[in-house]
């Protein structure tokens, strides 16, 4: 009989605490190409919890672009981009992303986490000030803490709070940096930051603005250029990922020539990481071409969002951020949200997971989200829509939700 080490004893106790609180997380194994139909641990189901908003993760044209690059460039980059890892496929993708976003330069990172941590730790020092929305992604929170800068947290989507924090930031010698940072689309609440207001405040106070548009890039705006296009803003530092609307992997930072050159020198997660495989860059460039050539994907996504929200309303289901959260400046007063993230806040973690399991038993994969990902008492189903969902898929999910006891009214014919 083996005896646990002191380390294992401590970890086992914490794991048991997580199980008892219904906060224990498990992975499920997916077999096959990612899409709205998945085979998960031997069970066929409809996928309503993916970030593959435009349905490109399983697109054959994207896969073929990767295959061609695999033949020409192999499976790996072999080194960091500053040694031998910078392939022509990386350069082509950076140039395509710069043209698409309208920024002078783009720099690729291995993930959104690496991009956010690399930017914040690379730009900020102990003399600087970071002003951040309290519901920013964990990568922005960790990057800000690692930077050593004075960290001022602002209540979620609170423009007045940003004004107060910016007014309090001190720059007596003109040498320190004040940086405001926010998600464009918040991944758990599905709402939008008040970017025009924050951008105006940054200009007024001589501060820089950074946005993480992971869930808006490719989805929002007439041409899919994200939160900037939808809200008419242009932050100094624009970060987005390629594992969502582009259906591939990695992330990028867009900005001025000076910013990108500085990050090449100082962003540790770029300097000391092996460059992404060239095939991933080739696949992302093909996906970018598709979202520009096929705006109907975004149109189908909006139709699916509208259908789901209308159906949920008929059932008496309240979607959106928790009660008391500030309303999005764009979606407030509209019939449905513009974004594919539709949270259904249940509150209790145990009930949330029970409903998630009941839906899975009926063939619908809808993720239950619990603390610490969301604040205590706001556990939820995070329902996401894709351009490749069919109307029948959406209606079937609504029927299943009703069968699981959600809502207060029968679904209309």
UniProtKB/TrEMBL annotation:
**What residues bind substrate, as annotated?**
25, 137, 373
Q: Which domain of life is it from?
A: Bacteria
Gene3D superfamilies, per the entry: Aspartate Aminotransferase, domain 1 (3.90.1150.10), Type I PLP-dependent aspartate aminotransferase-like (Major domain) (3.40.640.10)
For this protein, the record's CDD domains field holds: KBL_like
Family designation: Belongs to the class-II pyridoxal-phosphate-dependent aminotransferase family. BioF subfamily.
What does the record give as its pathway?
Cofactor biosynthesis; biotin biosynthesis
* Keywords linked to the UniProt accession: Biotin biosynthesis, Pyridoxal phosphate, Transferase
Which part of the chain is the Aminotransferase class I/classII large domain? 44-400
Q: What gene, per UniProt, encodes this protein? A: bioF
Q: What is this protein called?
A: 8-amino-7-oxononanoate synthase
List the taxonomic lineage.
Bacteria, Pseudomonadati, Pseudomonadota, Gammaproteobacteria, Nevskiales
Signal peptide residue numbers: none
On assembly, the entry states: Homodimer.
Q: What does this protein do?
A: Catalyzes the decarboxylative condensation of pimeloyl-[acyl-carrier protein] and L-alanine to produce 8-amino-7-oxononanoate (AON), [acyl-carrier protein], and carbon dioxide.
Whose protein is this, by species?
Panacagrimonas perspica
Look up the EC number in the record and give it: 2.3.1.47
Name a GO molecular-function annotation: pyridoxal phosphate binding
């Amino acid at each position: 009989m083996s005896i646990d080490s002191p380390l294992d004893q401590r970890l086992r106790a914490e794991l048991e605490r997580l199980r008892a609180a219904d906060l224990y997380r498990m992975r499920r194994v997916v077999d096959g190409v990612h899409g709205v139909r998945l085979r998960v641990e031997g069970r066929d189901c409809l996928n309503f919890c993916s970030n593959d908003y435009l349905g490109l993760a399983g697109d054959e044209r994207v896969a073929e672009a990767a295959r061609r690059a695999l033949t020409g460039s192999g499976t790996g980059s072999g080194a960091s981009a500053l040694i031998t890892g910078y392939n022509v496929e990386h350069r082509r993708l950076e140039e395509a992303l710069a043209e698409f976003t309208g920024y002078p330069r783009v720099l690729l990172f291995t993930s959104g986490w690496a991009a956010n941590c690399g930017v914040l730790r690379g730009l900020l020092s102990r003399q600087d000030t970071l002003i951040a929305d309290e519901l920013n992604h964990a990568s922005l929170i960790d990057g800000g803490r690692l930077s050593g800068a004075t960290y001022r947290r602002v209540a979620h989507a609170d423009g007045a709070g940003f004004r107060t924090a910016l007014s309090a930031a001190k720059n007596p010698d003109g040498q320190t940096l004040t940086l405001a940072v926010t998600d464009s689309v918040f991944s758990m609440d599905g709402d939008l930051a008040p970017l025009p207001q924050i951008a105006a405040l940054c200009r007024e106070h001589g501060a820089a603005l950074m946005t993480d548009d992971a869930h808006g890039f490719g989805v929002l705006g007439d041409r899919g250029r994200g939160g900037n296009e939808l809200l008419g803003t242009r932050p100094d530092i624009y970060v987005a990922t390629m594992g969502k609307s582009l259906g591939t992997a990695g992330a990028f930072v867009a900005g001025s020539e000076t910013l990108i050159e500085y990050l090449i020198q100082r962003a540790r997660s770029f300097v000391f990481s092996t460059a992404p495989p060239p095939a991933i860059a080739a696949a992302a460039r093909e996906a970018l071409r598709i979202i520009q050539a096929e705006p109907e994907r975004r149109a189908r996504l909006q139709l699916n969002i509208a259908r789901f929200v209308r159906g949920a309303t008929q059932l008496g289901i309240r979607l959106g951020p928790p009660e008391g959260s500030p309303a999005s400046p764009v979606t407030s007063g509209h019939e449905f949200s513009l974004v594919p993230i539709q949270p259904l806040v249940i509150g209790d973690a145990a009930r949330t997971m029970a409903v998630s399991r009941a839906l899975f038993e009926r063939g619908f994969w809808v993720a239950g989200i619990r603390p610490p990902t969301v604040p205590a008492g706001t556990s939820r189903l995070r329902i996401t829509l894709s351009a490749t969902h069919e109307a029948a898929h959406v209606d079937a999910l609504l029927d299943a939700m009703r069968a699981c006891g959600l809502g207060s009214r029968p679904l209309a014919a």
